[in-house]
Amino acid sequence: MESSQSSSPSRAASADRDAWKRILAARDAQPSEPWAEDEIASLRDFNLRAGASDATIENIARLSDARTLMVVAGQQAGIFLTPLYILYKAVAAVKWARRLADLLDRPVVPAFWIVSEDHDFDEIAQVRYLDKDGKIARWTYPGEGAEPAQIRGRSVFDVPMDKPALERFLDLLNDTTYPTEFKDDAIGRWRSHIRESEGFEDFFARGMTDLMGASGLVLVSPRLAPVRRRAVPILRREIENPGRSTELVLQAGRALAEDGRHPSLHRRGDEANFFLYRDGLRCKVTIDGDRFVVRAPGSEETVDRPDADALLEELERSPEHFSPNAILRPLVQDLAFPVLAMVAGPGERQYLPQLRDTYAFFGLTPAAALPRPRAIIVEPRIERHMTRLGVGLEAVAREDWTGIEEAFLHSADAGDGLAAIDALRESHADLLERARARLGELASNPSVAGALDKTGSAIRGALDRLESRVRDEIRREEETAGNHLNRVLDVLRPDQAPQERILSPLAPFLVNYGPAFVSWLFDTLDLDESSVQVLRLSAIRDALRTGGGES
């Protein structure tokens, strides 16, 4: 894995130097307050509990410097870091931070915001991986038929871990995946994380820290006391102006629709853009006249009806009771930290334009949105299947799944073989007729005529048997091609969805290639590629299997 603080900027970054200078000027015009020592201590302790490297601790210390900038990525705390694009975001944040540090001659810290306040546990509970047969396997926490205790309505950081259930998944993974030289270590690391973790946020942080090694990535929990305190000005303005931020989001959505684009943020006009914790539950808040209605998750039962003054008093006294939703979270992030740029996935980049007026209302300028790299990883065995049948990787880059399927299914095409048999039938019938003509009167002799008929019947029977055997072989080849196709699509297009949104990095990639898989991602992911990247593991297989690269 790369370890230097800076690297040579690409041609694309060099060409955009002036643009980045303008973005930097806007950021410097609304500087984030440098972090005080007690705040740094809180963030440092959180990262140290997860096993942070010296590089990460040094980056946290840089937050006390007013010149420090940040590139941030974020995602829900998917179990076992599922899906793959979580890792792509983290790698991209580190690579962008290094590039911009060199480009702007400023300290730039990479960070990953763990979205552990989210209370939709179903979004992170499923792990999908490839088994030893190359087929998609699924496991859902806490296991089939089990009833999750104390999950509904609770933030992920507050959900108790069923450690035996997580251990059982690793047992299942061990039993159902192909043995490799890296498997015991990969599974063993996660067993250690399970034993040492206090909850799912901690579990995610330990896994991420383990994989990112000495990259310097700083992990952020939204429930850290300094983050809560720094969110207070935004939440105060939200309470003092009930419904205004929602109105601005809806207005921006209507403007996008009039421009022929599709708004992705949809809100009811009476919704506040924060949740309140009541009895451990993350409760939705709506606006009813001069009151805020706090509703229990699931049942929508009213549990509280405070007015603005009561909420403002509670905010000053207990900011940990308040939780920004998806609309206010990026604003809190940009106020709490000196965020220059955010690594955003396709969905995030679609809704960020709807927040521009909301940012202005809160006196903030949005961070630059950097596209999260999109990638499809092709293992050597998959590439062999495709090469044998003449299917090029350019079809994968185009995501031409229909073309790939047709190529596989037509690889055992019966046309030529059956056409050859039909040609034999026609030629043998023609030869018999010509023989009859040349025999003349002899052909009418009963014994000769009978022999000719028997010869024709024997040839037709032989051709029928040949055709039957050819058809059997074609069916076997079609079945084989179909199996190969299913294996290819299970890896490249699992569940008919993008690979990066489905597969866990744990299997097949960490199990098959070890921690050096992440080093390879650092070397291979291209920040400047806007289309889907096809990453060929065969190109570095030997280096990975001999432990090449740092972790």
Describe this structure in words.
- It is a single chain.
- This protein has about 550 residues and is of the alpha/beta class.
- Helix content is about 50%, strand content about 15%.
- It has 22 helices and 14 strands.
- The strands form four sheets. It has a five-stranded parallel sheet, with helices on both faces. Strands 9-8-7-6-10 form a five-stranded antiparallel sheet, covered by helices on one side. Strands 3-4 form a two-stranded antiparallel sheet.
- Strand 3 and strand 4 form a beta hairpin.
- Helix 9 packs antiparallel against helix 11.
- The N terminus and C terminus are likely disordered.
DSSP strand tally: 14
Report the radius of gyration as a whole number of Å. Answer: 31 Å
As a percent range, the share of helical residues equals 40-55%
Biggest sheet overview:
5 strands, parallel
Parts with pLDDT < 50 across at least 5 consecutive residues: 1-15, 546-551
The spatial strand order of the largest sheet comes to: 5-2-1-11-12
Number of helices: 22
Mean pLDDT: 88
Q: What class do helices, strands and sheet pairing give?
A: alpha/beta
Concise description?
By secondary structure, this protein is α/β, with parallel strands linked by helices. It has 22 helices and 14 strands.
SSE map:
Blueprint: H1 11-15, H2 17-29, H3 37-49, H4 54-61, E1 69-76, H5 85-104, E2 108-115, E3 126-130, E4 136-140, H6 163-176, H7 183-196, H8 200-212, E5 218-220, H9 225-240, H10 244-258, E6 271-278, E7 281-288, E8 291-295, E9 302-304, H11 308-317, E10 322-324, H12 329-336, E11 339-344, H13 346-351, H14 356-361, E12 368-371, E13 375-378, H15 380-388, H16 393-397, H17 401-409, H18 415-439, H19 446-492, H20 506-513, H21 516-524, E14 533-536, H22 541-545
Parallel strand pairs: 1-2, 1-11, 2-5, 11-12, 13-14
Antiparallel strand pairs: 3-4, 6-7, 6-10, 7-8, 8-9
Helix pairs in contact: 3-4, 6-7, 7-8, 7-20, 9-11, 9-12, 17-19, 18-19
